[in-house]
Amino acid sequence: MEIVEYGKVISILGFKNVHIDNVDIFLKQIKSTAHPASAQILDAQHVAGKPHLLFAFLNALKSHQSGQAISKNLDMETLLYVSGSRQITRAIEMLGVTPHTSTIALIIFALTANEVKEAENKITLLVPGSRDDTVLEVTNQEKYLNLMKTFGVTELEIKTVSGSGLSKYETLTWLIVERVSLLSTKR
Fold first, then answer.
1. If 0-12 CB within 10 Å is exposed, 13-18 middle and 19+ buried, where does residue 180 land?
2. pTM for this one?
């Protein structure tokens, strides 16, 4: 997807059945393989769908362009927005990949579609798991409850907003998008 006003192209991928023996080596391999594109790797269990990741990335871009970024690095700024936290340590604890991670979300971004596509192809071969974007979505009660707890969403909020015809899973996604988008107002 091209984000014209910021001169970036982004791709969001999901992987299941992932097994990572050494997280530090894996993360370094992903980052170097993606180059000249950039990549942010997250535990997909704490992701509420592609809109969650897309809006977090857009907010990170906006904060960088306006000079209001928390981090000097767009990869890290994206992580902060995905987590809805201004603290890097908390964001990593919340969304970081560990040896126990079995599903991952990957945000790849670059200046051109070719750079993103090339990074996608190389990284897909590198990830020890199967490509499956459904791991990004909220599709089961366990992930739903986990995300509610992680992002502090209440049943009352879900009931109030879900009256608009959305499922409770879709409602949760949009409430989380709203929360992470509000990070820029927390100064």
1. buried
2. 0.92
